[in-house]
Design brief:
single chain; 14 strands
């Protein structure tokens, strides 16, 4: 018997295996959404998407956080007919119609109201403990930013006004405990969170809840937005996904996603800036855009306005070019940009 066989036989831990055969690396399940650049923001590839582990969506109020979470959850339910959405709710800002807007069958949603971090921790660990790797479950917490600790809640009930120092510790414990379950049981968890402005000469947005969330998360987005105006009328918003942390995407990447009041999330939004930088699309004159024939370098008619680039007719010929998909992967993914230690040793 080889040393490897002895070690495998003696291990008391389930799922112990040779790394080359490991399910945790070789069977990584990625679920693509309907929006290509959301997939890029999650995985670095238009063909990637939501993966097992913790994804944190952070930002101020009304920054589309819950909607992004439901877009991902809807994609998961669409891919797996027997999948269930486990929805932990502390804000109660998502009525049934909100789920239906994203084509989520509410009979496949288990709604669990929560009032404090400890209540969430006990319930989610019990749920994860009872699942196995073949169970198809996606979890959304809306939101951890609005959750009190049990101590804070008890103090309020007992009319105590002392400062609560336990919340960050409780959140750290929550995510420290859930992270191994999520990866071993192949389950994605999407946590909606808040941000606050750091005090200083150059304040920046910081994800609330302490360092525990940063340590545990596979992806952290900090969402920004700008109004989409026609004259003085607001037609929607241009959201910006700021990749604060990722195991797949270059950190500090900025990916725009547009949402209109009329049509919801613009399916093709976010692609234009990347295509311009890679010369797959050209801007021959102010306000006009056209595709580029990469084999000849010539511009492809017709020229269109920016709003008209948000169409399948404009993007499908480009998306069918595998070279453009590879360009996006090279531009955003860290997988294709692994540090070469041998070269570092030469300097």
């Amino acid at each position: 018997m080889s040393i490897m066989d002895k070690l495998k036989k003696n291990s008391k831990v389930d799922y112990t295996s040779i790394l080359a055969d490991s399910k945790f690396f070789n069977e990584k399940d990625m679920v693509p959404t309907d929006v290509p650049m959301i997939n890029v923001a999650l995985s670095g590839s238009v063909d990637g998407g939501l993966a097992p582990g913790l994804t944190v969506l952070a930002g101020p109020s009304k920054h589309f956080k819950t909607s992004f979470a439901l877009i991902m959850a809807a994609a998961y339910l669409k891919k797996y007919d027997d999948a269930v959405l486990l929805f932990y709710d502390s804000e109660f800002g998502s009525p049934q119609a909100y789920f239906e807007n994203y084509s989520i069958d509410t009979t496949r949603v288990l709604h669990t109201p929560i009032t404090n971090v400890e209540e969430l921790k006990f319930d989610i660990i019990a749920q994860l403990e009872g699942l196995d790797r073949n169970d198809k479950v996606v979890i959304v917490i809306d939101s951890v930013g609005n959750l009190a600790s049990k101590k804070e809640l008890d103090d309020a009930i007992n009319e105590k006004s002392v400062a609560d120092m336990s919340r960050a510790k409780a959140l750290k414990g929550l995510f420290r405990m859930t992270t191994p379950y999520l990866n071993m049981k192949n389950i994605p968890l999407i946590a909606v969170n808040h941000t606050y402005q750091e005090i200083g000469l150059f304040p920046k947005a910081v994800v609330s809840g302490g360092t525990g969330i940063y340590y545990s998360a596979d992806n952290i987005w900090i969402l920004g937005r700008q109004q989409d105006k026609v004259g003085t009328e607001i037609k929607g918003y241009h959201f910006v996904i700021n990749v604060e942390k990722s195991r797949y995407v270059k950190e500090k990447s900025k990916i725009p996603i547009s949402v209109s009041w009329d049509g919801g999330v613009q399916h093709w939004s976010g692609l234009l800036d990347a295509a311009l930088s890679g010369n797959y699309v050209s801007k021959p004159s102010v306000g006009w855009y056209c595709r580029v024939d990469k084999t000849t370098g010539e511009l492809v008619d017709p020229k269109v306005r920016e709003k008209d680039t948000l169409s399948a007719d404009f993007w499908k010929p480009i998306m069918e070019d595998t070279d453009f998909k590879q360009y996006l992967t090279n531009k955003y993914s860290i997988v294709n940009n692994v540090i070469n230690l041998d070269k570092m040793d030469q300097h």
